[in-house]
Design goal:
single chain, alpha+beta, Diaminopimelate Epimerase, Chain A, domain 1, 17-stranded mixed β-sheet, two-stranded antiparallel ribbon, 4 helices, 19 strands, 16% helix, 38% strand
Length: 283
């Protein structure tokens, strides 16, 4: 059965968005891998499926990694979905529900979107780590990188602070640390260069996706970890391969806000199995 899809990106972090709110999608891990493949499918960093909202939200967003696994949150995808749902409902403010919680989003007059990703989780069991440790200093090191800080922004993140990103084997190091035994759910691995207290260059390896042009939750985690180490102010520009995200760790309530673009690349039809509903439902 052919259903519509929309290809979108936020600062180069790209997504295939499928709408399963009326008729549920029977997405298997194999089908997700096929759709996400850049040679054999549509191609994306994550596949996003929309589901009917429950009370208090405008839509439920499920995030599928290209290896078929599921992510808890994605800031860049949230901005894209907020744009779609906001236009559909005629709203400038929408709430997107995920398995990691609600993400209130505000569509700005210039088309950018601000997402409230909530407060970071800083405890070792909240990241999670496999054993009790100080999340501000993890005993991980390889070659030129060492001593990362960790937190969760709906997904587990570890951030290495480096003098320079030049010459770093981001893919090799990222893949190695993603699967480290310290991270029972695997982890997103960031490599950050502090250029000023309000300006941070970041490259990030996403679990289940690899090296991407941008990662919203990773940018948020990087600022949080930088502030915790007194390397940055609570509001900064995060410079990623695909563009710039403005991140603020609000002091008043501890929430982390992310502002950035959301763009539509193209749309089309794709053959996706659809779950059969009892007669009368979904009509």
């Amino acid at each position: 059965m052919e259903i519509p899809f929309i290809k979108m990106h936020g600062a180069g972090n790209d997504f295939v968005v499928l709408d399963g709110r009326t008729t549920p999608l029977a997405l298997t891990a194999e089908r997700i891998r096929q759709l996400a493949d850049r040679r054999l499918g549509i191609g994306c960093d994550q596949l996003i499926s929309l589901e009917p909202p429950t009370m208090g939200a405008d839509v439920f967003m499920r995030i599928h990694n290209p290896d078929g696994s599921e992510a808890g949150a994605c800031g860049n995808a949230t901005r894209c979905v907020a744009t779609l749902v906001g236009e559909e409902l005629g709203l400038a403010s929408v709430t997107i529900r995920t398995v990691s919680g609600d993400l209130p989003s505000m569509i700005l007059p210039d088309g950018r979107v601000t997402v409230d990703l909530g407060a970071p989780r800083l405890g070792w069991a909240e990241v999670p780590l496999s054993r009790p440790l100080d999340t501000l200093h993890l005993p991980l090191a390889e070659g030129p990188v060492a001593d990362p800080a960790a937190c969760s922004m709906g997904n587990p993140h570890a951030t290495f602070f480096v003098e320079s990103l030049d010459g770093l084997d981001i893919a090799g190091l990222g893949a190695r640390f993603e699967a480290d035994a310290l991270f029972p759910d695997r982890a997103n691995i960031g490599f950050a260069q502090i250029r000023a207290r309000d300006r941070i260059r970041l490259r990030l390896w996403e679990r289940g996706a690899g090296l991407t042009l941008a990662c919203g939750s990773g940018a948020c985690a990087t600022l949080v970890n930088a502030v915790r180490r007194d390397l940055a102010d609570r509001r900064a520009d995060l410079l990623l391969d695909g563009g710039t995200l403005i991140i603020e760790w609000r002091e008043a309530d501890g929430h982390v806000l992310m502002t950035g673009p959301a763009e539509t690349s193209f749309s089309g039809l794709v053959d996706v199995e659809v779950a059969r509903l009892p007669a009368g439902l979904g009509e």
